[in-house]
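So, can you check?
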Amino acid sequence: MNRTRIKFRHLQIFIEVARQKSVGKAADILAVSQPAVTKTIRELEEILGVKLFEKEGRGIKLNRIGEVFLRHAGASVASVLQGVDSVNQALLQSAPPVRIGALPTVSARIMPDAIQRYLKENVGSEIKIVTGENSVLLSQLRAAELDIVVGRLAAPETMIGLEFEHLYSEQVILAVRAEHPLLATAQLRLDDLRKYTILMPTKASVIRPFVERFLIANGIPELPIQIETVSDSFGRAFIRSTDAVWIISEGVVHNDLQDGRMVCLPIDTSETRGAVGLTTRAGSKENTSLSIMSQSIRAAASNQ
C-alpha cells in the first residue's frame, strides 16, 4: 500500500458517499459528476487494497472495513479543516487595524450602524475609534495616525492635502430637556436664551464658526453665561439636570431627541446647515479593511 497516494479529495468524496449512501447524491452535494465520484472511490479502494462499500438495495453502504476507515478519515478531514481555519484566523489577526476619527456628530448617529455592518463582513481587522476636536483629528489624519475622519467639512485652509466625500448634511440645533420652561414660551425668540446657561462648542470645534455667524446675524454677539465643551457625556448629563440650552449638531443628540429625553427648541437654525462626510489623505490608497469600513459608513449614512 502506497499511503502517499491518498489525497484530500479521496477522503472528502469517501466521507460524503458514506454519509449519503449514494454516489449520485454525493455527486450533487459536492457539485461533481457521478463518474468522477465513482472513479475517486475506486482509486481509494485500489490504494488501500480493499473494498469499502457493498450494495444495499438500490444504494450502497459501508462494509466493516469501510466503517473502520471512516472513523480515521473523518478525524483527518476535520483536523485539516481546523488547520485551515487557524491559518485564516492568523492572517486576519495580522491585518492592519482600521483607525477612525469620528466627531461627536457622527459617533452616536452613524458609527454604531456602520460598525455593525463592518463586523458582519468578518474582515478581522482591529477597529480603533478616536473622538475629539476636528483640528486634532485632522492633524492625526495628516500624520497617518488615523486612516479616515468622519464628520463635518472643515474650513478650506485646514483641508490642504486632504480629500472630502460628502455623505449628508445636518444643522446645529438648540437642545433642552423635555420639561424646559422655554418650551412653554409663546413666540419664542433667540434673545430669550440670555436668561439661561448656554453650552457652546469650543473655539476649535468645526461648528463654532457656524454658531457664531448665526448668533451675530440674529443680533446676539455675546451670551452672558457660557460653558464651552466638546464632551457629549457632560453635555447630556448637564442638560437633563438643569435648564441649560445646548447649542450642538443635531447628530450628537439624535438618539436623545428620538426617545424624547431632549427636545429641539422651535427656532430656525437652517443657516447653520453643513456637509458631513469622509475625510482622507489625498492620494492615499485603501486596503481591503478600510475599503469595507468606508462602504459600511456610506451605507449607514444613506440609512439616515
User: Anything to note?
Assistant: Residues 64-93 form the longest helix (30 residues). DSSP finds eleven helices and twelve strands in the chain.
